[in-house]
Structures are given as structure tokens and as C-alpha cells.
Specification:
This protein is an alpha+beta fold and 223 residues long. The protein has three domains: 12-44, no CATH class; 49-110, Double Stranded RNA Binding Domain (2-Layer Sandwich), CATH 3.30.160.20; 112-215, Ribosomal Protein S5, domain 2, CATH 3.30.230.10. Helix content is 30%, strand content 29%. The chain has helices spanning 12-18, 25-30, 38-44, 93-106, 156-165, 181-197, 202-208, and strands spanning 49-62, 65-77, 82-90, 109-110, 112-113, 132-136, 139-145, 152-153, 170-175, 211-212, 216-217. Strands 1-2-3-4 form a four-stranded antiparallel beta sheet, with helices on both faces. The chain is flat.
């Protein structure tokens, strides 16, 4: 840990990271310990990028007059297998964005990538390993593997989520009120969650050349 950061870990996971006993985000998530300190992500994923996907102003009349608050949704990722989404509300945009980024770090997930398109077969982790679905509110999204060179054939909000997760090629289909940006972003995030939760046998894993997180080959079971 660098001096001068002022971070004193309070959780078991934070202490393990601080002491150097956990050195990667994959290891941290594999412990199943709750991720409650954004500094853990700062240490293990120092090259995160963030994208503000939605800012809304909410006004409410009270006895003392009109009160204005802002709601911010942010997506973060390292473009190499890790992505998170966070929301925050408050009176000032700057501090709210910072808080939303911190919340996104606490929601970071590790996804699996691969070459699941029958049209490609390059065995590189440029796309999704299989079809995934996600929903939030009225929005439902479906992402399918695409061959190299197709790019992200999805809506702009979903494109930000997939790009920050490290997906380069994918087909996308949506249902519902996709103009509801927040639900669209959360639905895309929930779809990517399926890549980690779905269990696959060894034969499928070999055929699809599936990688997890930062390009780690699932077939070799290496960290």
C-alpha cells in the first residue's frame, strides 16, 4: 500500500488486500467476502475507466420552497473482464458522481469472455462465450456472440457497458422502454453477470475458449 493514501482497512477483505495476501481482483471476488471498501478496487484495478450514463434533476416542492436533487448513474470497467455500475443522489453533481463511482466499485463483477460465434472460431476472448439475457424494470436485453470485426451492434448505453467490460464484438436485442437509460444500463450489467454464474462442462469450455477476468484461461484453472 502506498503511503499517504490515508486508507485504514476495516473489513477482513480489506486487510487481506492491504497486507498483500490478495493480489488480484479475481482472488478478492473468489473469497466471497463482502466488498465494502472502494479502496480495495483502487489497489487491485488501478486502471479503471468510468462513464456517466445518466444524470437526472429531480425537483420537489416543500413548505420551505423548491428543492432540487440530482441522480447519477455511472458504469466503470477496466476493458479487460471487470465491470461495475453504481448510482447516487444528492444536491451537488460533482460529489454525487464521485459517490456513484464508489458505489460502482462495490458492485464490480468479473465476467467471462470467449469466441462463442460459430462464424468465427478464432479462440480469442473478443466476444461473449454464449447468449446471455438481463432485465431491469421493463427493459430486457439479449446479447449474443458475434464474429470478429462486427463491433458492438447494440444500443449506445449497452455499448458503454460492454466496452468497459472488455467485450469487442456482440449482437444485441432489446425489449421494453429502452429510453429509460438507467434500466437499460442495469439490464446490460445483469446480462453480463450471467457469464460468471452459468455453469459449463469441460467440453463446452474447451470449444468456446472461455477466459475470465483479465484474460485468464478458464481451461487451465490458473489465477
Amino acid at each position: 500500500m502506498e503511503e499517504g493514501t490515508g486508507w485504514i482497512p476495516k473489513t477482513k477483505l480489506g486487510k487481506l488486500v492491504y497486507e498483500g495476501k490478495i493480489t488480484s481482483m479475481s482472488q478478492a471476488l473468489a473469497t466471497r467476502l463482502p466488498l465494502k471498501e472502494p479502496q480495495i478496487v483502487d489497489m487491485l484495478l488501478p486502471n479503471l475507466e468510468e462513464k456517466v450514463v445518466d444524470i437526472k434533476m429531480v425537483q420537489r416542492m416543500t413548505d420551505s420552497g423548491r428543492r432540487t436533487k440530482f441522480s447519477v448513474t455511472v458504469v466503470i470497467g477496466n476493458k479487460d473482464g471487470f465491470v461495475g455500475i453504481g448510482r447516487a443522489k444528492g444536491k451537488e453533481v460533482g460529489p454525487i458522481i464521485k459517490k456513484a463511482i464508489e458505489n460502482a466499485k462495490l458492485n464490480i463483477i468479473e465476467i467471462k469472455r470467449g469466441c462463442g460465434s460459430w462464424e468465427c472460431g478464432c479462440n480469442r476472448p473478443h466476444s461473449l462465450p454464449f447468449k446471455v439475457e438481463g432485465s431491469s424494470g421493463s427493459v430486457r436485453v439479449i446479447f449474443k456472440p458475434a464474429p470478429r470485426g462486427v463491433g458492438l451492434a447494440v444500443g449506445d448505453v449497452a455499448k458503454d457497458v460492454l466496452r468497459l467490460a472488455g467485450i469487442q464484438d456482440a449482437w444485441g436485442f432489446t425489449e421494453g422502454h429502452t429510453k429509460t437509460t438507467v434500466n437499460y444500463a442495469i439490464a446490460a450489467y445483469n446480462a453480463l453477470k450471467q457469464t460468471s454464474s452459468m455453469k459449463m462442462n469441460e467440453k463446452i469450455t474447451l470449444n468456446l475458449a472461455i477466459y475470465r477476468g483479465g484474460g485468464v484461461d478458464v481451461r487451465s484453472n490458473k489465477d
